[in-house]
Design goal:
The strands form six sheets. The chain has a six-stranded antiparallel β-sheet with strand order 1-11-10-21-22-12, with no helix packed on it. Strands 3-4-9-5-8-7 form a six-stranded mixed beta barrel. Strands 14-15-20-16-19-18 form a six-stranded mixed β-barrel. The protein is mainly beta. The protein is about 10% helix and about 45% strand. The protein contains seven helices and 29 strands. Strand 27 and strand 28 form a beta hairpin.
Length: about 400
Amino acid sequence: MKFVFIFFCCFTFLHCHANQHSIDSPAVFITKFPFTQLSGGVIMIHAKFNNIKRELNFILDTGSGAISLDSSTAANDSVFQVPSGKSITNIAGTKKVNFVQNCTLSIPGLEVDSLDFYINDYEILSEVYGIKIDGIIGYSFLSKFIVKINFDKHEIQIFSPGKIKYPKRGTLLHPIFTALPIQSLIISDRVKSIAKFYMDTGAGLNFLVSEQFVKDSSFLKKKRKPVSIQVQGPGGKKRMLLTVIQELKIGPYKFKRVPTNILQDESNVLSYPHIGGLIGNDLLRRFNMVLNYPEKEIHLSPNTHFKDGFDYSYTGINMYYKDGLIFSDDVIENSPAYKAGLREGDVILGVNNNFTNDIEAYKIQMNEVGKYVTLFISRNGELQNIIFQVDEIG
């Protein structure tokens, strides 16, 4: 179970189109390698860029229409970049980006050349996860291969395009591809609604809908009382609402009481009314997946996490890691943490009996509904204890 308020959405939508082709020869196994699972099920892999000798940390993101490099990584390694004439759209709006042409990405057992990397600022992702995030791997890479993701083994396998035998257990989806996979889902709350949603492994949440979709579809029960949260992503920070919906169905698989973010989408990142929102990796991690972009297919097979409970905890805290310290960020007014006295800028030294200075570990300490939590903080050099009870979204 994940700590709800740090969820973010990697909305880097650079629209392009998949190659129209069918491959008759068998897919050939190329390589396999481990991955690290971050908050919300987000996948981080190690790879090398061009002639930079050290391994870099990349997020594997079906919600990205391109492949990109962090601006500070590019600056520190004197990577030459030029204006791209293109823009990246995310939760904070749209901005023009530079890029680096004809680059090489090396992962264990595979080297891919002739890639164009866009340059974007991922400092906020590094702060959220407490680890340097050097870039995002999206469509430009995924479109070239068949990618198997095993959340039980934390392992990725790469195959060449071609005929492949899918696992017997599971279901085969045929999403629409406009660089990003788009799947029809059935969602139910006050009423049942069928709409199209992005499948976004870079989004560390379960499900997200646009506020306009909620208004137009009227599917959400009127008794719902969403709480306010802050989310953090490549574009910056943004307030959202968080609630639950009665049911979500993807293919034949149903999930009950799904935590759901509601986004006020001023920039229309989600392309509403064509797209209602997205399904994120805190839900998708419950499947082992085969991403077959060349054939426009995605296979889902329930794994050992399929019946994991959802995280319904609410504290109102947002944390980030910077210069070796963990800080409270925007503390939501009238939330449990705010009422207990926590404020923006407090240094969090420990949570309960955990003093590891590990932001991921601190999040886990605060995701049990009804549990009393003790924060040990420093404010202006003065040590304090903050005690509150974890609330529940509903």
